[in-house]
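sry for the spam today, last one i promise. struct tokens for design, 610 residues
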């Protein structure tokens, strides 16, 4: 690809600006660990919301989303339920408030407020650290694959390298360089640098998204889109199977559908909904999303920050995704079809950018996608070392070191996590395989223990440890011995293993001590099976009130899921010029927004001091 001076200037200017902002604000992070990892709890909720949305706008996920929209049409909006995307609604409605009341630095430290400091509490604490580090490594490998596929298609230089008998292909070299560049400013400035650069990157990405959508709408007509897709491509409701037949239009797409395992989409959506409820009730995994929640000033701010995340993330992201998919369908698909053979659909996004966009816009899009990559990756590089430094080194190895010493150790931990993630990335075949493993297998092992910790007073640290360990074992066995089995279908087995580990580990050991349970319940006040603890707590804190919000929270979650889906669907219908779908989406968006304003936002509260 031949870059113009304008495009090169935009890209280089963006990279320099990101690094300068990261270093400029880094002085504020070096006071202590609280400042380094949580911004000293002084960051405004709306900056954290923009940062969180920016951090979720990753390039690997964008490439994957372009691919599934290209292949499955509007029905593809259901496939991200694999994560599930609406776990953010659970966090928004009640989970963020529960988490923020704990006043801790990491998810592992939070666990000690629930299970105490006895042997069971320590085991639960250690297993959370292990999970946080494993998931961070998995995501870094995921980013490594995505940015490599993107960069090798866009940039013209061959960076392949041979060292002895080892040959490193060009896309791995590009990925390594970009990961190293982002790590540089993250380890220097911690959460302050991450949030400051991510807010800037959010605006870069938004400009890029709107530009792509505008370009697609001015260069592709609705008639051309209709001619490029099979019947049913514009339908949103998931039938029992996809009912899409690309025969005669683009035959290789049928092979892609069979390979993905998404052919029976209706059955898949039901399984994803079942999985999603449990996954969302478990709360955010110990990572960057939880760090944003813990970084807010108050529990109410944590809830508002989580709500803002969906609002700022999905409309611009899906403007870009749809614009790129439309350009791919009309202009790129004929070229790919003519080439014959196997098609790597994950390269549709970089192919469109490489061949379709004009000077100037190309530079803006590339800067926006680099921003998407850097913001998401930086969030993980900031969150994972917190567990190593705060929960391992400070707690078990050197509890009396200086703040400067802890921050230096965090630098080493960040670099180590990135190196291991890169090594794993070398052995990952595709973005889709990593996505499915992380969402269905690895997170499947997380669910059982983390649902029980919220809703059942009798659950203890031993149950948590054995439940998490059984889940991790199940996901690892699947990854090593059944790599070709669709992960979503393995989820119930992994969930069963984790549930057995949780209940047996819990019921064969003694409960958590009353002092820990009462203090946790007083601060967090979850709903669920907490009556024995509530009754004991009332004797010490007579003014203590019970959380009776389960019904309202459940209703708000259902409304919130619809609200979030409208934020995704409306931009798609706008770009493809299906105005009936756009109008219905916008009406639902207004109705659900009004309901959430009066039934959620106006009723967010913290509990009375006790």
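last one done:
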């Amino acid at each position: 690809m031949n870059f113009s001076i304008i495009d090169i200037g935009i890209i280089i200017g963006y990279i320099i600006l990101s690094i300068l902002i990261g270093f400029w604000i880094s002085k504020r992070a070096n006071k202590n660990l609280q400042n380094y990892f949580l911004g000293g709890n002084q960051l405004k909720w709306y900056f954290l919301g923009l940062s969180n949305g920016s951090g979720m706008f990753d390039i690997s996920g964008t490439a994957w989303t372009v691919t599934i929209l290209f292949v499955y049409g509007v029905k593809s909006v259901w496939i991200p339920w694999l994560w599930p995307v609406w776990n953010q609604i659970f966090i928004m409605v009640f989970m963020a408030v529960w988490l923020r009341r704990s006043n801790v630095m990491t998810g592992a430290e939070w666990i000690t407020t629930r299970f105490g400091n006895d042997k069971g509490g320590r085991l639960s604490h250690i297993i959370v650290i292990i999970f946080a580090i494993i998931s961070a490594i998995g995501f870094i490998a995921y980013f490594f694959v995505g940015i490599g596929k993107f960069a090798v298609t866009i940039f013209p230089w061959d960076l392949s390298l041979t060292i002895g008998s080892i040959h490193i292909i060009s896309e791995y070299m590009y990925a390594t360089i970009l990961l190293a560049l982002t790590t540089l400013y993250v380890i220097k400035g911690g959460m302050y640098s991450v949030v400051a650069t991510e807010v800037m990157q959010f605006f870069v990405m938004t400009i890029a998204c709107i530009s792509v959508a505008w370009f697609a709408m001015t260069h592709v007509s609705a008639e051309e889109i209709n001619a490029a897709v099979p019947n049913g491509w514009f339908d949103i409701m998931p039938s029992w199977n996809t009912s899409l037949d690309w025969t005669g239009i683009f035959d290789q797409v049928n092979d892609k559908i069979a390979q993905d395992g998404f052919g029976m989409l209706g059955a898949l959506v039901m399984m994803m909904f079942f999985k999603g409820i449990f996954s969302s009730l478990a709360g955010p995994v110990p990572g960057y999303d939880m760090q944003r929640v813990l970084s807010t000033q108050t529990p109410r701010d944590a809830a508002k920050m989580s709500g803002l995340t969906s609002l700022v993330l999905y409309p611009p992201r899906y403007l870009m995704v749809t614009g790129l998919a439309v350009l791919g369908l009309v202009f790129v698909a004929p070229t790919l079809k003519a080439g014959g053979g196997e098609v790597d659909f994950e390269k549709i996004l970089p192919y469109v950018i490489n061949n379709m966009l004009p000077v100037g816009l190309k530079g803006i899009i590339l800067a926006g996608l680099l921003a998407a990559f850097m913001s998401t990756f930086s969030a993980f590089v900031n969150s994972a070392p917190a567990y190593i430094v705060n929960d391992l080194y400070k707690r078990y190895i050197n509890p009396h070191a200086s703040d400067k010493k802890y921050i230096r150790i965090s630098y080493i931990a960040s670099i180590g996590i990135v190196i291991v993630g890169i090594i794993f990335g070398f052995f990952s075949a595709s973005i889709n395989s990593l996505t499915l493993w992380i969402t269905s297998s690895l997170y499947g092992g997380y669910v059982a223990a983390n649902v029980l910790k919220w809703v059942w007073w009798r659950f203890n640290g031993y149950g948590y440890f054995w439940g998490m360990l059984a889940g991790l074992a199940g996901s690892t066995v699947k990854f090593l011995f059944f790599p070709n089995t669709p992960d979503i279908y393995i989820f119930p087995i992994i969930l069963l293993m984790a549930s057995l580990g949780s209940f047996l580990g819990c019921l064969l050991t003694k409960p958590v001590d009353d002092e820990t349970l009462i203090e946790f319940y007083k601060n967090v006040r979850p709903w669920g099976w907490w009556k024995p603890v509530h009754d004991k707590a009332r004797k010490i804190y007579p003014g203590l009130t019970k959380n009776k919000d389960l019904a309202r929270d459940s209703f708000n979650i259902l409304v919130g899921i619809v609200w979030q889906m409208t934020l995704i669907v409306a931009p798609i219908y706008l770009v493809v010029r299906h105005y009936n779908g756009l109008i219905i989406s916008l009406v639902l968006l207004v109705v659900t927004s009004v309901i959430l304003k009066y039934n959620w936002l106006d009723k967010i509260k913290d509990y009375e001091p006790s």
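The chain has a mean pLDDT of 82. ok im logging off now
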